[in-house]
Amino acid sequence: MEQMCEGLRAREYALSKNHSLRNKLVDVQSALSLINDNDVLAIGGTVITRDPYMLIWNIIKAKKRNLTVVRTMFSFEALLFAVSGVAKKFITSWMSIAGPLGISKTLSDVLNREEIELEEWSHMGILNRFLAGSMGIPFIPTYTMIGSDLVKKLPVKYINCPFTGDKLCLVPAINPDVAIIHVQRADEYGNAEILGMPIQDKEIALSAKKVIISAEEIVSNDYIRDKPWRTLIPHFVVDAVVHAPFGAYPTECQGYYEADIDYLSRLATIDKTEGEKGIFNFINDSIYNRDSFYEFINSISSSQIIKRISVMKELMRGE
Amino acid sequence: MSYTTRELLAVLTAREIKDGWSVFVGIGISQLAVELAKKMGKRKLFTIYEGGSVDPELKPPYLPYSTNDIRVGYKALMYPSCLDTFIYLQRGYVDLALMSAAQIDMYGNLNSSLIKQNGSIIKFPGSGGANDLATLAKMTIVVLPLEKRRFVKKVDFVTSPGWVEGGQSRKEQGIIGGGPYKVITDKAIFDFEPNTKMMRLEGVLTGMSLEKVLENMEFKPLVKESIIEIPPPTNEELQILRSLDPQRVFIK
Prior knowledge:
heterodimer, B: 7 helices, about 25% helix
């Protein structure tokens, strides 16, 4: 069989898609049908910024299985994916519940028992993988990770620069099956605005074969055309758009609300004191035993939510 | 005024940062150290955070939870993508990266990936940008408490290469960044001897003996001919530091 690099396979897939301007606004169940068991799933945002938790919550609830989950830096969702049985492998550079809350002991135990595989890159290493994937080329040469033990278990190659002889590290492209990305605003075609920190979502969207966007607000196509400089993800790479107010809660969505650190702190306490069983009960209470993500959101006190909105207003001026 | 270990580390680090440097920082002690340096009059230096923020202001009491949330975004100059912050490093625009680690050896090689303990391995889930900073910055300063379990003969895992095996070995490996410049601890400050690249005692905190410093290290560092005495934090330094972290999130 002829070998084809991942980027060209992703290109073939893109060429076969319908690129038209058309309505892709769907309910969350339809969007989730784009994700199959055993898929490589990429998550947008990073740590506690724009974690697409509404989509993640529904993936856990739908009991998707054996996903290889890629995120440049994970927050609490890695712990939930591990304990709920969604993930068989993580590809990342970092996993913590949030900075000062530290590393999850339960997740460390699971990883140390090697029940779930961990492929660890440097942050720049994994970002370069998405960049290569987004460009449709097989690898990116970089000077990072050279001389480190990190590369010993990683599928990287060293070459000498064909022009100068410099030593370079080649990191392979990644082209995930599906990317899930939470944005502030999108139209029904999938043109998506990201306010605040862009993280790496432009490249993550472009590297993935299929893209699901969740958005705080669905805006008109005219609204997008009024301020095209704010569009970061174009409609033609997007397969489904889901309207998801508070869709990143309890992580932050810049311009709307900051992270609910109290909620994440409670999770960190359960993690420390009750371990895997406690986390499983947490998943039961907040996901399996609830009918919808919005039943979960309604369980958060409104004063908590108002507090997060007002801190965001104070720190992100002009939005 | 009495002070905590973390306050001491932040103050000593702030003193070592030179005005005008571009400094790649994380949250916690390193952010507080840079912000303290700014407040102490070093107005020309600026910060870069890997989550994607250039020179934000710290707005107490909103201390950040990560390098990418809005709390490191207040009054920033720019929100680059995460990759762009590393491109600034690779491209040569970062003078100093502040780092920490679970283990360090005499050549400044750092481990923030795993610890070998009684025959088993305890993995930390990821080291983030640590390797990239150590590999690509013009120089690095490593900040960590002086403890025997941290200052080891051989690190369990080289997450972030320092001077590798000393001498020219770092350059020979093809690592382009300038390497470790200083190591700041709660008892002493070290630099690296220019030829051998071995860690070298440069100064000790007032009232601290050389014996006490060596007791807390598994390897024996070189010792400079004239060791300087490092004055403890002043009241002014501590007051400013505490005003930056009024709820003592990072300096407890």
